[in-house]
Design a protein that fits this description.
The complex is a heterodimer of chains A (147) and B (145). With 147 residues, chain A is α+β, with helices and mostly antiparallel strands. Chain A has a single domain, classed as START domain (Alpha-D-Glucose-1,6-Bisphosphate, Chain A, domain 4, 2-Layer Sandwich). Helices cover 24% and strands 43% of the residues of chain A. In chain A, strands 1-7-6-5-4-3-2 form a seven-stranded antiparallel sheet, with helices on one face. Chain B is globular, with a radius of gyration of 15 Å. Chain B is α+β, with helices and mostly antiparallel strands. Chain B contains three helices and seven strands. The chains are: A alpha+beta (147), B alpha+beta (145). Chains A and B meet through strand 1, strand 6 and strand 7 of A and strand 1, strand 6 and strand 7 of B.
């Protein structure tokens, strides 16, 4: 089972980063892969079990469900329900930790999934670079513009 | 129960930082407050349960037991057996996590302990800003930032 782990350091306090990340319906405001986002059944975006529907830049759609979220730990977990590409059993975890030496933030993002053997490398690369690393770079820019 | 949490980022890969801090008997090699250290009973310093007896530059003596050590998860957990600090049930963990975006390492050093209520703020500050941050500052210097 592929396991993708990426992490970065942001020059912003954890509360500022968490304020952006905790909105399960807000990824389209900062992540370059997401063109539009909505929560099904008009549920609140911090209701555990809610489902977000993404429209991606290429027009395809995917659905993800919020499995857990903690304002105390500054973590959340979600899984994929439907995607246009062959990824199965996809569960991802986001975790923020304070860097007390400088009031910065450590951001840890990981996921596990299964796929067809022939797709393993290309999908791992896509998640690692176009979702996780691109997300880090986008948040960095987003926080700079908000400041 | 009092808690201390201090964290930093060192500009070196986690395997290099781990090589410097994993030796439970090696604190004099990297921490400026520690003058000398030995493991009791001639045991290896990575044997879980071994006890280090070390002396600080200020003359204080502390004995600590190794509770857990993992080269895979890169953490070290230990408890104070004897110290002049006036703490009870003191358990601390030093943990390293790779920062994949650049070859950096995220370090966390945490402690939990009981003490007299009027001494808590002073102890938390001494341990956090003094001992832990002092070690982090030395590591950052050793690895150039």
């Amino acid at each position: 089972m592929p396991h993708i782990v990426r992490s970065t350091i942001l020059d912003a306090p954890p509360a500022a980063v968490w304020n952006v990340l905790r909105d399960f319906n807000g990824f389209d405001r900062w992540h370059p892969a997401a063109a539009a986002s909505s929560i099904e059944r008009a549920q609140p975006a911090d209701k555990i079990g809610c489902v977000r529907r993404f429209k991606l830049r290429d027009g395809s759609e995917l659905r993800e469900q919020l499995l857990g979220l903690s304002d105390l730990e500054q973590t959340f977990s979600y899984c994929l329900l439907d995607t246009p590409i062959p990824i199965f059993n996809y569960v991802a975890h986001v975790r923020l930790l304070p860097v007390t030496d400088g009031n910065r933030t450590f951001w840890h993002w990981e996921s596990r999934f299964t796929t067809r053997p022939e797709d393993r490398n290309s999908i791992s690369e896509m998640i690692s670079e176009q979702i996780f690393q691109a997300g880090f770079d986008a948040i960095r820019q987003h926080l700079k513009e908000a400041a | 129960m009092a808690r201390v949490y201090v964290s930093t980022v060192v500009n070196a890969r986690n395997d290099r930082v781990w090589a410097r801090v994993r030796d439970f008997n090696g604190m004099p090699n990297w921490h400026p407050a520690i003058a000398e250290s030995r493991i009791e009973g001639g045991e290896p310093s990575d044997k879980i349960g071994c006890i280090r007896d070390f002396r600080l530059r200020n003359g204080d003596r502390i004995r600590e037991r190794l509770l857990g050590l993992s080269d895979y998860d890169m953490f070290c957990t230990y408890a104070i057996l004897e110290s002049p600090m006036g703490v009870e049930n003191y358990v601390a963990t030093l943990r390293l996590t790779p920062v994949t975006d650049g070859d950096h390492t995220f370090l966390e050093w945490t402690a939990e302990f009981d003490c007299a209520p009027e001494r808590e703020a002073e102890l938390v500050d001494n341990i956090g800003s003094g001992v832990f941050q002092g070690g982090f500052d030395a590591l950052k210097r050793a690895f150039g930032g």
